[in-house]
Design a protein that fits this description.
With about 900 residues, the protein is mainly β. Helices cover about 5% and strands about 65% of the residues.
Length: about 900
């Protein structure tokens, strides 16, 4: 860990030294004929040697631009705009000089000496779209799209393949304008070859927001990969096979075909590596969190197709399959503080789970004319799960060395099907911007489950009897919902606009629970338990009217204010021997948003209803150690949200995202507990006041200009949280005050695509204090670090190192405080055009992988240690083949 910290400090010092750049270039770009300014012209600074991009910007409405913090060395300036030839100027800096080029005129007849025929423009900005020329960013042979994206200015790709652009998340990847596995963009970025890409387009995701009503800071980005003409028709495939020690295996197949309007792709994978294949094309890093905590056997597959029928109709479909078998072995220690008594529990948990999920999603879009959009998206899914959980616990107090032993075995299975659809209609009524939107959604979700609970309680105190429990529970649930909405967007004048929406929804949740005890003589579950069975039905009907007015002031200042009127009727049906509970509510929910340049202030108000399970007017004795009492007098939770957001991206490729929010609740629902001297507890939900949470999030990143073949990037994240939560135990009321600060720092450095080093460091400082109740405060600091190195020498060889370290000083006795996870890999390209690769991987060479968790909740401190996957060696063969251009 110390080496990692020193490395980060060294890199940051190096970056600070490299960052002392003061070169400035400015000018005004005009049309040579009418002498009018040319806005949105793209200005690029290139290195003369390799034409690599140093910096870029666009001209403002007055045709002006300024580029700051440039290295004072010879450079090339490109000025490009649609309808004008690209202008080329050579720039030579003098020490601390500001180069003012004055007025630059563009026309169809520019002097030959300032035009470079066939000049490749690395970046073009068209309104809200940034387009990069992929040929201007050189990558290694056999590089994938993810390697190309890492080189683009403003694009950040983290260890897990998550992509952001100028600090904003990427919501989907498109290929030649078609959706490509929208649920998993890494399928595109880690399987498509970089050499196939001609252009990379990045633009705002306004596909479901044609009137631009969503604030800019909430809008994600879309990446569209435009293929070279040679690759627009043909196929691309990849095959991976791996085997190793401890019966480890991995297999992966990817296939894609592109043919005019039709695009088909499929992927399949099966492995038992539990997500530790950190050096394969599908896993480029295990992340700062280290290794996994469970043992997983996974088989997954998906098929994606996208087809256009003419210019007005297109359809996209995805089939997804996932089958996971998970084994989770853990040890848990808890301490619960009740007055001067400390309840201690030591337990072991053996859990086996099987989950199978399959889904089919279709998306159809029809544009009969330029003003109308009709979208329909149905989805069908099937889910099967089974589990077997064994828990053995020993319980004591600081006064009684042994209270009881509890051995519990829970097993069961269940299945569910779900159908849902979304239908959306949008029509732009006139050129003034008036538009009408209609929407309809439907969700049908029946579920069936059967569970068995075997519990043996051995008590060592006279006040608690030993008990044997053999119980069966059959559950049938149905969750159905439908909604209908309409929205009108009406610009009243150039500064004031109105958005009026009306909606109605109906949610119906019905559940039957039949509980039986086993007849220990016959072994049949036929002893019906009426007090632990239920027939719950809730009908929730809502009607909403929401007018919102937006006023645009001078400059980039706007004010938005709205008021939602909500009428809600809820019918709660309990068991036949309990009275129904009918509720009627009327709410006025105000909202406001003030936008000043790059800062947005907002306020929102919402209501959450208590669950029907908490409202049951019954008492349920689940076991001698646990009793639940329902509360039909619960009130809805009211939540007030205040937030502020700041986002900025500068020409020097520095972005800063700052957000903060405060949530204050009234009528918070908490679990009131009564615990007796032997640990038996009675729980009931009650309303309380005074809960609030505050979060502050800062995320900043900087891509430094390439210097002496070095490319350096850094990102910093700071997340702070303060919580004030009410709780009550044994009629003692108090508050749990929590403070949490997390710092994440990531630095990467690449030298000429031959050597790359990536480091990450995370520190988490947490404090828990109590108010109005005499409980011990706790505080702890956990640290995690990661160091990755890639070396591509000699030719055709790749060497990889991955080291993760974690440290938690405040863990229970007998638990490991630190973990050292070291993995190495060696690969060589083989066969024609280096399309094949053989790789040897050693995971957790020190055999020290540990996964542990420590946290405080209410008046309880929890420590959990998992048994993760340990050292293994793996041999992998990969082959890529393609068929294009015929």
């Amino acid at each position: 860990m110390r080496l990692t910290i020193l490395f980060i400090a060294f890199i940051m010092l190096m970056m600070a030294a490299k960052g002392q750049n003061h070169g400035i270039i400015k000018a005004i770009v005009l049309d040579s004929t009418d002498k009018k300014p040319i806005p949105y012209a793209t200005i690029s600074i290139l290195k003369p040697g390799d034409s690599s991009l140093v910096s870029y910007t666009v001209t403002d409405n007055n045709g002006g631009f300024i580029l700051r913090n440039l290295r004072q060395e010879p450079s090339r300036l490109l000025i490009s705009h649609v309808g004008y030839p690209t202008m080329h100027l050579n720039i030579i800096f003098k020490k601390e000089e500001i180069i003012d080029l004055g007025k630059i005129y563009l026309s169809a007849k520019v002097l030959q000496e300032v035009i470079v025929k066939g000049e490749r423009v690395p970046v073009i900005i068209k309104k809200d779209t940034i387009e990069f020329d992929a040929e201007a960013f050189k990558t290694r042979p056999n590089a994938v799209v993810e390697d190309l994206l890492r080189k683009l200015p403003g694009v950040q790709v983290d260890h897990d393949g998550h992509i952001s652009v100028n600090g904003k998340d990427i919501s989907k990847i498109k290929v030649d304008g078609k959706d490509f596995f929208v649920n998993d963009p890494t399928i595109a970025t880690r399987n498509l070859d970089a050499e196939m890409i001609a252009k990379v387009q990045i633009y705002d995701n306004r596909e479901n927001d044609p009137d631009h009503l969503i604030p800019d800071y909430q809008v994600t980005k879309i990446i569209n990969l435009k293929f070279k003409k040679l690759f627009k028709k043909g196929s691309l495939s990849k095959f991976i096979a791996a085997a190793g020690t401890q019966d480890k295996y991995d297999g992966n197949v990817f296939y894609s075909r592109f043919d005019k309007n039709l695009q088909i792709a499929a992927t399949a994978n099966s492995n038992n590596l539990s997500g530790t294949g950190i050096f394969s094309d599908d896993n480029h890093g295990q992340g700062i969190s280290g290794g996994p905590s469970s043992l997983v056997k996974s088989t997954a597959g998906s098929v994606n197709f996208d087809n256009s029928y003419g210019k007005n109709f297109k359809i996209n479909g995805v089939y997804e399959y996932l089958d996971n078998i998970t084994d989770n072995n853990s040890a848990r220690q808890t301490q619960q503080f009740i007055s001067d008594t400390i309840f201690n529990s030591n337990s072991t948990n053996l859990e086996h789970q099987h989950a199978n999920i399959q889904s089919i999603t279709l998306k159809a879009e029809w544009n009969p004319d330029s003003a109308t959009i009709l979208k329909y998206a149905p989805k069908f899914s099937y889910n099967y799960n089974s589990n077997n959980n064994n828990v053995n616990s020993i319980n004591s107090t600081n006064y009684i060395p042994l209270l009881n032993q509890n051995n519990s075995n829970n097993y069961g299975s269940g299945s569910s099907i779900q159908f849902q659809h979304d239908l959306n209609y949008y029509h732009k009524i006139n050129k003034k911007g008036v538009s009408l939107s209609l929407s309809n959604s439907l969700n049908i979700n029946p579920q069936n489950n059967i569970n068995f609970n075997n519990n043996d309680l051995l008590s060592y105190v006279a006040s608690l009897q030993s008990d044997t429990l053999r119980r069966q529970a059959k559950t049938t649930n149905s969750n159905d919902a439908e909604s209908l909405g309409a929205a009108l967007h009406y610009p009243i004048n150039k500064k004031l606009s109105a958005d009026i929406s009306v909606s109605g929804s109906h949610d119906r949740n019905a559940g039957d629970l039949l509980t039986y005890d086993q007849d220990l003589k016959t072994g049949i579950y036929d002893i019906f338990l009426q007090d632990q069975s239920s027939n719950l039905i809730r009908n929730d009907l809502q009607q909403n009217v929401n007018p919102v007015f937006t006023y645009q002031f001078k400059g980039n200042i706007s004010l938005k204010a709205g008021l939602t009127t909500r009428l809600e009727q809820i019918s709660n049906h309990f068991n036949s021997y309990s009275n129904n509970l009918n509720q009627h509510f009327f709410y006025l929910l105000p909202s406001a948003e003030l936008h000043i340049d790059k800062v947005t202030f907002s306020y929102g108000n919402n209501v959450r209803q208590p669950s029907i399970n908490d409202l049951q007017p019954i008492t349920i004795v689940y076991s001698p150690l646990f009793t639940f009492i329902g509360n039909p007098n619960l009130k809805p939770i009211r939540v007030h949200n205040w937030s502020v957001n700041y986002f900025n991206f500068t020409q020097s490729q520095l972005f800063l995202n700052l957000s903060s929010n405060i949530a204050v609740e009234t009528n918070t629902i908490l679990r009131e507990q009564t615990i007796n001297a032997v640990g038996a507890q009675v729980t009931t939900p009650v309303n309380s006041k005074g809960r609030f949470t505050t979060n502050i999030y800062v995320y900043a990143g900087k891509r430094f200009k390439k210097t002496n073949k070095w490319q350096i990037n850094t990102t910093t994240g700071i997340n702070g949280a303060v919580g004030h939560n009410f709780f009550e135990v044994n009629q003692q009321s108090g508050y749990q005050n929590t403070q949490n600060i997390i710092l994440n720092e990531q630095v990467s450095a690449n030298w000429n695509d031959v050597f790359e080093i990536r480091s990450a460091y995370s520190v988490n400082y947490a404090i828990t204090k109590y108010q109005l109740i005499d409980l011990k405060s706790t505080s702890y600091t956990t640290q995690k670090s990661l160091l990755e190195m890639d070396l591509y020498l000699p030719k055709k060889y790749t060497w990889n190192v991955n080291y993760a370290y974690s440290y938690n000083p405040l863990v229970a006795q007998g638990f490991r405080q630190n973990s050292n996870l070291l993995s190495l890999s060696f690969a060589r390209h083989i066969q024609k055009k280096d399309k094949g690769e053989v790789r040897i991987t050693g995971y957790d060479l020190l055999n020290q992988n540990v996964s542990s968790l420590h946290y405080a909740s209410g008046n309880t401190i929890n420590d959990i240690q998992y048994q993760p996957i340990r050292r293994y060696f793996l041999f992998t063969y990969t082959y890529r083949f393609s068929d294009f251009g015929k």
